[in-house]
Specification:
Order of helices and strands: HHHEEHHHHHHHH
Distance between the termini: 15 Å
Radius of gyration: 23 Å
Structural class: mainly alpha
Strand order of the largest sheet: 1-2
Strand content: under 5%
Number of strands: 2
Organism: Paragonimus skrjabini miyazakii
InterPro entries: BRO1_dom (IPR004328), BRO1_sf (IPR038499)
Number of helices: 11
Largest sheet: 2 strands, antiparallel
Protein name: BRO1 domain-containing protein
Shape: elongated
């Protein structure tokens, strides 16, 4: 197999914020704790709000990422300089819409704003990754890096900005699921690169087997009560189908490349057994692919070639090898 077909991947939509926050509590903090007139810092407050607006409405490119990360850095500085307490009225109320329910959520804590913008940084990385065609090694590397950066963002929310349940998209269990999916999609890019580089079949077999296991584990994660209770069913359903499909698909590829390895070692009986297993796993993937249409996905995805067409192409390659 000279190259793998580019199986579609998914990204995450960006959170949106309806209104700019009222920074009156910050001004109160300046006057109460620093004994300065807040009017002296009107330009700084205006710049802060402009920075937030740019981060909330980013262009889908590296410029948009830069604006998001600049605002995140501004938040880090502000958090260290301003007291934020609901009791004394110095807490700013931040508002964001939940990606999955579209409900407006307000929370008077810096950590919520940090988590929301980090989520969007991760989401934009996934969108940029999905846009990559992965037709050559450079594009594969770019997509892989974007997915890895998204994992960093989601993991950072869980580790440093953990919140009590305020919105489904910032729930730690939900973020762990998406972290697992993005890690797996980064691994897919590595598998595609391995095939492109014509690395030894047993090496590619190990990579694809790990990938199949990762998707199987993610499917199990989606059955956790916390996920079932929080994530709306249409998102659960699509994620589960995609993970089940990719577990079967990459399990089939792992068997196929294991067969190639045994062929190379002239162990033809073992090779045939591997090819038979590959054929069964790809058939399982094809059954699931019938139920998935990228054009109807609830997630940002690349739709250049129908998902099932790619699965059937791999099936034909395996059958030709087996016959």
């Amino acid at each position: 197999m000279e190259s793998l077909p580019r199986i579609s991947m998914i990204g995450l939509s960006l959170k949106t914020s309806d209104d700019l926050p009222d920074l009156g509590p910050m001004k109160k903090c300046i006057e109460a704790y620093y004994q300065h007139s807040s009017d002296m810092y009107q330009k700084e407050f205006t710049d802060f709000l402009s920075c937030r607006k740019a981060a909330c409405e980013p262009s889908i490119d590296y410029t948009g990422l830069s604006k998001q990360k600049r605002y995140y850095a501004q938040l880090q500085l502000a958090k260290g300089r301003f007291r934020s307490s609901v009791e004394d009225g110095t807490a700013v109320s931040w508002n964001w819409r939940d990606v999955f329910t579209n409900s407006l959520v307000e929370c008077p804590h810096f950590v919520y704003e940090e988590a929301a913008i980090l989520f969007n940084i991760g989401a934009l990385h996934t969108i940029l990754a999905v846009k990559e065609k992965r037709a050559d090694a450079d594009s594969m590397k770019v997509a892989c890096t974007h997915f890895q950066c998204a994992v960093w963002a989601f993991d950072t929310i869980c580790e440093q900005h953990r919140l009590p349940h305020v919105s489904s998209d910032l729930n730690s269990d939900v973020l762990c699921v998406f972290s697992s999916i993005m890690t797996a999609q980064a691994q897919e890019c590595i598998v595609e690169k391995s095939v492109l580089d014509e690395r030894p079949a047993n090496t590619t077999a190990k990579l694809t087997q790990y990938l199949a296991q990762t998707y199987e584990q993610t499917t199990n994660q989606l059955s956790l009560p916390s996920i079932l209770d929080i994530l709306p069913s249409k998102f659960q359903k699509e994620l589960r189908r995609r993970c089940e499909l990719k577990s079967a698909y990459y399990g089939g590829l792992a068997a196929y490349f294991s067969g190639l390895s045994e062929d190379g070692n002239k162990k033809y009986g073992k090779a045939i057994a591997w090819y038979q297993l590959a054929e069964r796993r790809i058939a399982d993937a094809d059954k699931i692919a019938k139920e998935i249409k990228d054009t109807e996905s609830v997630f940002p995805t690349n739709q250049s070639v129908p998902l099932r067409s790619n699965v059937q192409f791999v099936s034909s390659v395996i059958q030709n090898r087996y016959v």
